[in-house]
């Protein structure tokens, strides 16, 4: 079975598993119903953009449409490996760093907004 047919079969199986008709999935995905049928039958080669829309309609990651369980397994193993390598102190340090960075960004945005409001007030007072 070629890749286009495998993708179509994956979409069809996921759609059926979710209990959706082709019409319902097409509506949720924002794609034409007949086009979706062609994709499911492997008659049409969808773009990545279309696959993203269909994945969104199915509420699944786009990788699940490709049906590459080896890729999915590899990603999951890598996530677990990264978490296993980080000790609790390293993880705490990463999280605290992210929080500090976000706080500094928010503070910076707040200061620029305040300065812009002050400038607008001064301009309004002089006019």
Q: Percent of residues in helical segments?
A: over 70%
Task: State the CATH topology of the largest domain.
Answer: 434 Repressor (Amino-terminal Domain)
The CATH class of the largest domain, by name, is Mainly Alpha
Total helical segments? 7
- The CATH homologous superfamily of the largest domain: lambda repressor-like DNA-binding domains
Question: What gross morphology would you assign?
Answer: flat
Structural class: mainly alpha
Distance between the termini: 73 Å
User: Can you write the helix and strand succession as a string?
Assistant: HHHHHHH
> What is the count of distinct domains?
2
Largest β sheet strand count, sense and barrel closure: none
What is the total tally of β strands? 0
Structure, described:
This protein is mainly alpha-helical and 127 residues long. The chain is built from seven helices and no strands. The model has no long low-confidence stretch (mean pLDDT 78). The chain folds into two domains: 66 residues, lambda repressor-like DNA-binding domains (434 Repressor (Amino-terminal Domain)); 41 residues. The relative contact order is 0.09.
Describe the structure concisely for a colleague.
By secondary structure, the protein is mostly helical. The chain has seven helices and no strands.
Topology:
Elements: H1 3-17, H2 22-29, H3 33-40, H4 48-58, H5 63-66, H6 69-85, H7 88-126
Helix pairs in contact: 2-4
């Amino acid at each position: 079975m070629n890749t286009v047919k495998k993708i179509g079969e994956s979409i069809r199986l996921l759609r059926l598993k979710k209990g959706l008709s082709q019409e319902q999935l097409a509506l949720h995905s924002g794609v034409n119903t007949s086009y979706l049928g062609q994709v499911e039958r492997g008659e049409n080669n969808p773009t990545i953009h279309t696959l993203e829309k269909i994945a969104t309609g199915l509420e699944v990651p786009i990788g699940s449409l490709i049906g590459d369980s080896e890729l999915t397994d590899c990603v999951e193993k890598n996530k677990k490996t990264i978490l296993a390598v980080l000790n609790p102190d390293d993880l705490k340090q990463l999280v605290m760093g992210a929080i500090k960075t976000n706080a500094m960004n928010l503070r910076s945005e707040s200061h620029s907004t305040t300065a812009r409001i002050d400038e607008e007030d001064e301009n309004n007072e002089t006019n």
